[in-house]
Amino acid sequence: MARVLLKDLTKKFGTVTAVDKVNLEVRDKEFLVLVGPSGCGKTTALRCVAGLEEVSSGQVQIGDRVVNDVMPKDRDIAMVFQNYALYPHMNVYDNMAFGLRLRMLPPWYKGLFQMSEVRQTKGSIDRRVKDTAEMLGLTHLLKRRPKELSGGQRQRVALGRAIVREPAAFLMDEPLSNLDAKLRVQTRAELIKLHVRLGITTIYVTHDQVEAMTMGDRIAVMKDGLVQQCDRPLEIYNHPANLFVAGFIGSPEMNLLEATVKASNGDILVDAGSYQVNMPEKHKESLKPYVGKSVRFGIRPEDIYDKSISLIPAQPGNTIGVQVEITEPMGSSVLLELDPGDGKTLTANAGADTKARIGEPLEVVLDMSKAHIFDAETEEAVF
Ligand SMILES: Nc1ncnc2c1ncn2[C@@H]1O[C@H](COP(=O)(O)OP(=O)(O)O)[C@@H](O)[C@H]1O
Ligand SMILES: [Mg+2]
What is the overall mean pLDDT for the chain? Predict the structure, then answer.
């Protein structure tokens, strides 16, 4: 068991800075998800931890050791990739046992070992492989070769191969990307259960914010080689630190609108052009410096209610008239694309029994207690 510590970790490829002074502590037994759009430096950061890339500057610490100069095989980590990388000519059992044999029975030791010791070691490898196979539901597949397995089964073998090593930390790079949607959700759940059971420190890379939200003890959101925010999933969802995180985490995306802050009769309003809404009492103080200025106003789709079935009371300061452009029934809810009159679409996630009809007007209620404001220049969250 170990924590992993990145200190000012930087990796440059020529003029490209793939990872830019990243500071991150992955706690012992924690499942930390590195998430961000393609090209933001996730894989590079992970490869630096694994020792597959030499860092340009900064430090990688695993447990109590600085491992910058430690060979990958000596870092006590196991990596799982998107493209399983199984040995095609070996069966499942040997794919899982191979690394252990190399480690525990290196050929140059053979002369030194007593036969009884060799037998004992082989026995313990056998037990580890079989226990892991049992845990992953692979027992009946041990004799098969990778090409005789489905994608999901191959992924489980790749996982099994990492688990038998009993490493200090797992590093996983988009391990579910090659699976179809249903299997991905299933395997996601299996991975979480497995992590609860094994409690091994894990860094999990994905571009999928749903995976990040559902799997991570904490999430580190990356963009352009920089960590934008690192916190527990709901903390990030409810309090995104900046405009990028606000737009990246959450599906459908948060509505982010250009608006102006105004003061009127002791109230603070946000004027989005074709409508005005009142900011709640709790935010008045922090908005005072912004009066008269442009900001970005953010509100999540699920915080916009069809007035006829609204869970929060409609008031003049939180209710607006819109035109329904599109309705997308999802079964448990209906996604609405709404035009408040300025063509800047608002997306709402309304209850399944919404009366909204395409082309008709609708009144919607905004839960302003959940509103977000971002500084237009720095893009940092005001709240
Ligand atoms: N071996 C390499 N040589 C040059 N540039 C690279 C190399 N690997 C990655 N990069 C660049 O570093 C940046 C981050 O890449 P990567 O870590 O693969 O991102 P991600 O995994 O988040 O999609 C990208 O701009 C990519 O083009
Ligand atoms: Mg990648």
Answer: 94
